[in-house]
Design goal:
about 180 residues; alpha+beta; OB fold (Dihydrolipoamide Acetyltransferase, E2P); 2 domains; 3 helices; 5 strands; about 20% strand
């Protein structure tokens, strides 16, 4: 029973300390690695919003749930034996951790999706010039992505002028600057 109390206490303390520390220290200056450089994301280099199953968040959910289920099962007469309460606590903690993992990933995908995350898919997409691009200058393009019309500043790759209304293809994106070449 002491193991369950320790797990429950450590899990709750970790959660509390993480919440307080993230509020005061934020971690906003972390280098970009994988899922936004956030430590709570765990080891994942996909860049897709979400958390890894082995992230500190999911692991603390498991440890806390294991301790809570262990305490509950050790108080019930039929499951009082550690040979019954421990496996049941493992299963209960695993189920809660999986549910937490699925919940957080669903929440992150819904709240973090934006046009910014899809910019890499624009390479090769067609667009049209809405503000002429002067020679070695900057103009403006319009493109449609996901049924929504966007505009962006653009330059030509070889530095040539392109008049308004001309169809172009997006060749690369550096920062907020789009590089295009004429297709017609």
């Amino acid at each position: 029973m002491i193991v369950y109390i320790i797990c429950l206490t450590v899990g709750l303390l970790f959660t509390f300390i993480s919440a307080i520390a993230s509020h005061f220290f934020g971690g906003h200056d972390a280098p970009e690695i994988g899922t936004g450089g956030a430590a709570e994301a765990g080891f994942d280099s996909s860049g897709v919003p979400g958390i890894s199953f082995f992230s500190p968040t999911v692991l603390s959910i498991f440890v806390t749930s294991f301790g809570a289920f262990g305490l509950i099962f050790s108080k019930i007469g039929a499951t009082q034996s550690p040979w019954l309460s421990a496996p049941l606590a493992l299963v209960g903690g695993g189920i809660v951790a999986v549910l937490g993992f699925l919940l957080f990933n669903a929440m992150f995908r819904k709240t973090q999706s934006s046009s910014e995350s899809r910019v890499a898919t624009l390479i090769g997409q067609s667009a049209s010039i809405i503000t002429p691009i002067p020679e070695n200058g900057v103009g403006e393009i319009a493109y449609v992505q996901g049924g929504i019309r966007y505009t962006a500043p653009a330059r030509t790759t070889p530095g040539r002028a392109i008049p308004s209304g001309q169809p172009v293809k997006i060749t690369r994106i550096i920062g907020t600057q789009f590089y295009v070449e004429a297709t017609g």
